[in-house]
Amino acid sequence: MKPIKVGLLGIGTVGAGTFAVLKRNQEEIRRRAGRGIEIAIVADLNTDRAKEITGGTVEVVSDANLVVSRPDIDIVIELIGGYGIARELVMKAIANGKHVVTANKALLATHGTEIFLAAQDKGVMVAFEAAVAGGIPIIKALREGLTANHIQWVAGIINGTTNFILSEMRDKGLDFATVLKEAQRLGYAEADPTFDIEGIDAAHKATIMSAIAFGTPVQFDKAYVEGITNLHATDIRYAEQLGYRIKLLGITKRTSQGIELRVHPTLIPMSRLIANVEGAMNAVLVQGDAVGPTLYYGKGAGAEPTASAVIADLVDITRLTGADHTHRVPYLAFQPGAITDTPILPMSEITTSYYLRLRVADKLGVLANVTKILADASISIDAMMQKEPDEGETQTDIILLTHQTQEKNVDSAIAAIESLSTVDGKVTRIRLEHLA
Ligand code: HSE
Fold first, then answer.
1. What CATH code is carried by the domain that includes residue 149?
2. What is the total count of domains within the chain?
3. 294-352 pLDDT, tens per residue?
4. CATH classification at residue 388
5. Ligand 1 proximal residues by C-beta, below 6 Å
6. Ligand 1 centroid distance, CA of 414 (Å)
7. Distance, CA of 154 to CA of 288 (rounded, Å)
8. How confident is residue 247, by pLDDT bands cut at 50, 70 and 90?
């Protein structure tokens, strides 16, 4: 059988990795796919670099439109990133009847509905294993391996940059800004790290996992997004003393009221396997009603780990290109007509536990006032730690861990606590998940 022909848009780190792995493992991949997979054309603005990587074995062009319109191309791999030109090219490729493989989480989290609809109309596949957690086959697991389950929640460390920074802050007791600079120097963080450190990248990935886990449309605009820029080394240390690690988690949960979709720093018990995922590694924990908890761990970025996911998609498409569209695995795991519009809950309606740190005057009755406010807001205290004031200080830190409660209760309790004259400044609030 003739090889399937692929056009590659963007030969940066992941593109070069894809080219290298496809070449190195071509025989094994052909045996699995049933036919060869051949990159026939590459589009990249840096044509010299593209030619160097491909070694003159494929056509290299600077205009990506030539790839998406070329009649002999069956699959287009989009590795450009962003929502602008990438969206245009993906839509054109679909309109021209090409299958699409993309690692572009930002594009799918924001324009996924439009893209999947267009692909459905044209009867082509859009595959995106590389968009979430790089080399970890979490899309495949959620969409196929766990298909028997009523999935209850998914929680993941899905951004390696922030996990690296948090690990370093904990290990070395350094503050965020110092570690960020070091991460940039070592190449772990981008020169402009906004998407990573503000939680946006993780929220794109959580949005995609949520849609697949619960059969809802992709709705990034409804996600709650909080990064790690305001996290203090002090809180990482106090959390450790209480038996918890702080991780930036992407969380999505199904409740009777709707779906929670949120990214924020989170305390998790140190005893959980996922709490021990360190450095730039990723991990995703999925709770299904039949299987219970399952954990997926691996590299969430990098040339060949991400290429591993891109090529898995190429193989899937190659195997299924002749199949009737209705016999293929649906994009979002559920049949297009079975996608429901279960609401994404506003943050005030979510339920979780909390870590609260307050700076208080070391005076009689201060704690009584604080605990009364919590009790009045129906918030039950799970644990408490009061530090002795430092030598010569009249203020001290109180750390409270709460049982589960609604976020709106905590909002009102924090406002009341901050208005006490014996409480100095803002209350630090970090959400806590037992992941049990
Ligand atoms: N920048 C991401 C990370 C990888 O740090 O995990 C690509 O999504």
1. 3.30.360.10
2. 3
3. 999 999 999 999 999 999 999 999 999 988 888 899 999 999 999 999 999 999 999 99
4. 3.30.70.260
5. 159-161, 196, 201, 300-301
6. 33
7. 9
8. very high
